[in-house]
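Ticket opened by: R.M.
Priority: normal
Category: complex prediction / small molecule

The reporter submitted a protein together with flavin-adenine dinucleotide and asked that the result be attached to this ticket for the collaborator who will pick it up next week. Submitted input follows.
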Amino acid sequence: MTRLPETPVVIGAGPAGLCVAWNLAIDGVQVQVLEKTNEVGGLALTFQDGEYLFDLGPHNIHTVYRDIYTFLRKILGEDLCQHYPEIKIFFRDRFVSYPLKGIRVFTTLPLWTIIPAGLSFLWARFKMFIRNPQNDDSFESWIKNRFGNVLYNIYFGPYAEKAWKINASGISSYVAEKRVPILSLTDYIRRLFKNPPKHFHSEDWTSINNYYPRKGVGQITNYLAKGIIGNNGSIEKNVEILSIDGGDRRVESIRYIQEGKISTIQTDFLFNTMPLNDFIKILNLDVPEKVRKAASGLDYCSETLLYLKTSCSKTFDTPLTYFSSPKIKFNRVYDVRLFSHDCVPSGKSALCVEYTCNVGDEVWGASPDELFEYAMTVFETHGMLFRKDVDGYLVRRITHAYPRFRIGFEKKLETILDYLSTLENVVTLGRQGLFCYANVDDVLYMGFRATETLHTLRKKGIDYSSLFPRHMAF
Ligand SMILES: Cc1cc2nc3c(=O)[nH]c(=O)nc-3n(C[C@H](O)[C@H](O)[C@H](O)COP(=O)(O)OP(=O)(O)OC[C@H]3O[C@@H](n4cnc5c(N)ncnc54)[C@H](O)[C@@H]3O)c2cc1C
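Result attached by the on-call engineer:
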């Protein structure tokens, strides 16, 4: 039985929302997308500044979904370029390749670091072999149990606190499981001799093919947006949603303000991709107090991005460089040219310096000049880049860059999704809408799955754990 909605509304014009709307639009359904900002693409947009094309942070495309790869190849053709996103870590004032491979393990780090780190690593592995650790729920305990105290203290702990802006003992182990490739001892030994590991982790970019659209990740979202408009759909920008209204277990209408004018639209199916906590706030149904309370306990990390246009054709050696020291305020730099030569003018380059922060903190409030001065002081001190080589700079800020996975977030999320799954005509999806660690390929996958579900939906409500099993944290 086919059950396509007649008046669907999608909240959010990031890749998740656009993918749902695109699927509906090409099926002949008149879909309406409501977007808060004046841009399309969400976190996966590419904006132009003069001759430069910039993403909001680096967007390396690596996917385990064969059908998403096929889809991207179909829509981008030769523009889906394979690339090699080598990573370096600026660690104790020197660049270290990541992951450490072969004999380089013994040459890039000093012996007085390697020996205690190696011994504590082996001791941790030995303890894990004997029995599973009792305390394994925080980022701190998870890493210490697998990598040992020394590596935690010198690298993982300080970096995590810098990136998540809270104490590592309060960060959920979910972050480590998702972010840190953990190999077996035999895989480490294989890697030592440059063989690929047998077990694959989705964040281990060295083990899979990596792609980048020739003109930025926005090529994907622009394609979807064009398809929506070309098939009688609409994307309303600068929309502030005031309330989502309805009756028993159903959403019926959405009230919003756009350019000073208040409108109400009717809907028979709502797809949400805006941040889950904000969504619950404007959901004007009979939402239980415990659900509202759970939603108010979820929060997101923000980012401030400083883009530097440089007059030299080569700035950094590798596309991605992580800065682990807590003394340096930014945590990652991506070299735009090393992602795609077509995103910068010939003979020039650009860097994007990422500062993780919280809305309202010192970094969030810093002016572009202050952020520039700060970054250049670090770069010049270490001979990485000089002011004379910078042609110009600009700053962008992201309020919801990463869901902040505090210990206990799973329970809150479960409470919210259990409630949402009782609504007949609502699906929440995407990185913000499911409060999950998802990449572009993941949210496209969700977009396809969410629309496929409409064709087979016979029961009331949505079972999230069967619809998006890979993205459920519980
Ligand atoms: C710094 C950084 C680096 C990244 N690197 C990679 C990478 O290397 N590879 C990769 O695949 N992915 C990467 N990602 C992740 C990728 O960008 C996201 O997975 C993807 O954009 C999520 O899509 P989404 O549609 O779920 O959410 P979003 O892209 O966040 O879209 C949500 C949309 O909802 C809108 N919205 C919010 N509130 C409202 C409201 N009240 N009303 C209406 N609209 C609203 C937002 O403006 C936005 O347009 C990175 C992200 C960041 C921040």
